[in-house]
Amino acid sequence: MAVQKRLSGVGTALVTPFEKDGRHIDFDALQRIVEHSIAGGVDFLVVLGTTGESPALDEVEKQEVCHAVVQYAKGRLPLVMGVGGNNTAGVIKSLQKTDFSGFSYILSVTPFYNKPGQRGLYAHFKSVAEHSPLPVIVYNIPSRCGANVEPETVLKLADSVPNIAAVKEASGMVGKIGEILRDRPSHFSVFSGDDSLTLPLVAMGADGVISTAANLLSKEMKAIVESVRKGRLSQAQAVNARIMNLLKLLFEQGNPPGIKAALHIQGFCENSLRLPLTSVTRNLYGRIEEELLHLFGSNDSQ
């Protein structure tokens, strides 16, 4: 399968907003967040990722969210759907039965809990890519999955599996990400999976970021990436410094509780999550609120 034009820029890893009781998806809020991201200049949207609480959604809800985002986006930018798991055969079955209309890529997370070795990781992603109707973005996040996709494995996938298009690197291992950036083939994209590492990784040659913060800070994340690309490092540094404290707060008690709190403060959605996730503590909520007031004033970021 021919790989599409290389993906780059800022992708919002969309939250899944819930109504106050958490039982139902708030589609009006989802539309507000999609529109805010697009207005902020993001280059693509990612649905059903970690930030979207995909493990807490049933299959019908996943289909509804995907269909809604396609309708809201109206073809204005590429869409990426999260399809992954720790049962390779199960992931392949999902790929075979899923309607990918309106989507351009899939994001597939490293198999979790099983803790496969590098041979297993390579075989897993190769099988997923061979059965996927869309190009695959490998999602490496060892803090959640218990296994790191090493640079040698990423590069082997990039070189030998035509339908592997990119990697979202959330390992935080800057040196190892640098090895991927140095040795990757020309068609292969590398994205930061960590908002706070966006500036240094793009400066090293990464293509952009798949960003949790962009649900709210779409303009700011876009400004960092574009400023570095255009050689305006001081501008990127200024934006990064301005939002640095907020980024730290957003991830202090995990993702997506932090971004859900911030979105609630700014009037986008309810501060509602599904177990086993819970909302941030009152203390952290207050500190996020203070930082948002300092940055934007009273919930006027929309």
Chain-wise SSE layout:
Layout: E1 9-13, H1 27-39, E2 44-47, H2 59-73, E3 79-82, H3 88-97, E4 105-109, H4 118-131, E5 136-140, H5 142-145, H6 151-160, E6 164-169, H7 174-183, E7 189-192, H8 198-204, E8 208-211, H9 218-229, H10 233-250, H11 257-265, H12 282-296
Parallel strand pairs: 1-2, 1-8, 2-3, 3-4, 4-5, 5-6, 6-7, 7-8
Helix pairs in contact: 1-2, 3-4, 4-6, 6-7, 8-9, 9-10, 10-12, 11-12
Shape: globular
- The number of distinct β-strands equals 8
Widest sheet: strand order?
Answer: 1-2-3-4-5-6-7-8
Order of helices and strands: EHEHEHEHEHHEHEHEHHHH
Largest sheet: 8 strands, parallel, barrel
Instruction: Supply Rg.
Output: 18 Å
Structural class determined from secondary elements: alpha/beta
Q: Which tags fit this structure?
A:
single chain, 302 residues, alpha/beta, eight-stranded parallel beta barrel, 8 strands, 45% helix
Sum this structure up briefly.
This protein has 302 residues and is an alpha/beta fold. 45% of the residues lie in helices and 12% in strands.
Describe it for me?
The protein is an alpha/beta fold and 302 residues long. The protein has helices at residues 27-39, 59-73, 88-97, 118-131, 142-145, 151-160, 174-183, 198-204, 218-229, 233-250, 257-265, 282-296; strands at 9-13, 44-47, 79-82, 105-109, 136-140, 164-169, 189-192, 208-211. 45% of the residues lie in helices and 12% in strands. It is globular, with a radius of gyration of 18 Å.
